[in-house]
Amino acid sequence: MRVVVAGGTGFIGTNLCTELDQRGHDVVALARDPTGAGLPDGVITKAADVTDRDSLDGPIAGADAVVNLVSLSPLFKPDGGDEMHDRVHRRGTEHLLDAAAEADVDRFVQMSGLGADPDAPTHFLRAKGRADETVRESELEHVIVRPSVVFGDGDEFVYFTKRLKEIFAPGVPLYPLPGGGRNRFQPIWVGDLVPMLADAVVDAEHADRTYEFGGPDVLTLREISELVFESEGRSITVVPLPMGLAKVGLTVLGSVGFPMGRDQYRSLRIDNVVSDNDVGAFGVAEADLKSFEEYLGLATETTDAADSTVTA
Ligand SMILES: NC(=O)c1ccc[n+]([C@@H]2O[C@H](COP(=O)([O-])OP(=O)(O)OC[C@H]3O[C@@H](n4cnc5c(N)ncnc54)[C@H](OP(=O)(O)O)[C@@H]3O)[C@@H](O)[C@H]2O)c1
Questions:
Q1: pLDDT tens profile 129-154
Q2: Cα–Cα distance list, 204 to 117, 128, 144 (Å)
């Protein structure tokens, strides 16, 4: 099968292209600048911009499936302002769907996210929600995947956690987290997510379905931050930063050129957990997924040797 992965050079994209390549598919990774992405030799790279409809025909010609992983980060304000979310996520998805329909592809896999909704409180989530609507309304057979935050080597989330501390409390063991970091996440490991995505590209039973994916634990931003610093042997004390102050702080940072703003402040108030974890549809048990603590090397291991009774 020939699979075009738009956004195939990003964090999830490089992992997915590698998985699809290992499964024997012909893989094309599409991005604005796909050079130096560290993809396997078998993966073809093509330069294209989803905001430019005409740039997509060449790379998508001959594809059996298209996966849309193109993304602007929700964690930082995009170059060009918040309206770029609509341009890249909604319009970009429309362009990809149109090019995919013209190329007669069999399936379109749309990477969305928890909370994506046309009426959501952030530009990012609204644009993602409108993009999902466009996918559902299209004639193409599709799968929509909505994960919570994804962790793994090269992710942006752990980096963001450390960056927030640098912003609000550089050089001291205090971490003033907006609202005390009470918003909840259900982090899922990229190594668990990607095989399910690869199945979604191919397996007939996933056609026209929408799936929510989360990891085995629900953690607040506070707990996540404490674990990240603990894994580096650093002890921090989280202190609540009143939301009003955080709003002013982030807006001021935005106005002095640091890429944060109202959207980022609003997203710190939104929970990011599944209503129903759909990993079971892929034959995966939630309890078998890698936990964030385990990934950071903090999980206490219960060994069979310690638990078992040896009879002579
Ligand atoms: N990472 C997470 O925690 C997470 C959680 C839930 C959902 N998701 C979703 O999963 C998908 C992938 O996320 P990710 O973390 O892998 O993103 P990422 O690392 O930021 O990668 C984004 C990719 O999109 C490409 N891209 C950006 N603008 C483009 C444009 N105008 N035209 C063509 N390509 C463009 C980038 O390459 P160039 O810059 O070279 O163009 C890159 O390949 C996104 O839909 C995201 O919303 C991610």
A1: 999 999 999 999 999 999 999 999 99
A2: 26, 25, 14
Q: Please write the tens of the pLDDT for every residue from 62-88.
A: 999 999 999 998 877 888 888 999 999
Domain spans in the chain, listed from the N-terminal domain onward: 2-148+188-214+273-286
Q: Is the CB of 56 under 6 A from ligand 1?
A: no
Q: Cα of 10 to ligand 1 centre, how many Å?
A: 5
- Cross-strand pairs, 189: 151
Q: Per-residue b/e over 211-229, b at no fewer than 16 CB within 10 Å?
A: bbbbbbbbbbbbbbbbbbb
Domain 2-148+188-214+273-286: CATH superfamily, name plus number:
NAD(P)-binding Rossmann-like Domain (3.40.50.720)
Q: Which of 28, 50, 69, 88 to mutate to test the pocket of ligand 1 (most atoms within 8 A of CB)?
A: 69
Overall size of the chain counted in residues? 312
Does the CB atom of residue 127 touch ligand 1 within 6 A?
Answer: no
Distance CA 152, CA 159 (A): 11
Give the nearest ligand 1 atom to 89 CA: 45
Q: How far is the CA of 73 from the centre of ligand 1 (A)?
A: 7
What is the CA(275)–ligand 1 centre distance, in A?
24
| Helices 157-168/243-255 angle, 10° precision | 100
Q: pLDDT confidence of 190, banded at 50, 70, 90?
A: very high
Ligand 1 and 31: CB distance under 6 A: yes
Using CB atoms within 10 A of its CB, is residue 235 exposed (0-12), middle (13-18) or buried (19+)? exposed
Q: Tokens at residue 105, please?
A: 């592809």
CA distance 55 to 80: 20
Side chain identity at residue 197, one-letter code = L
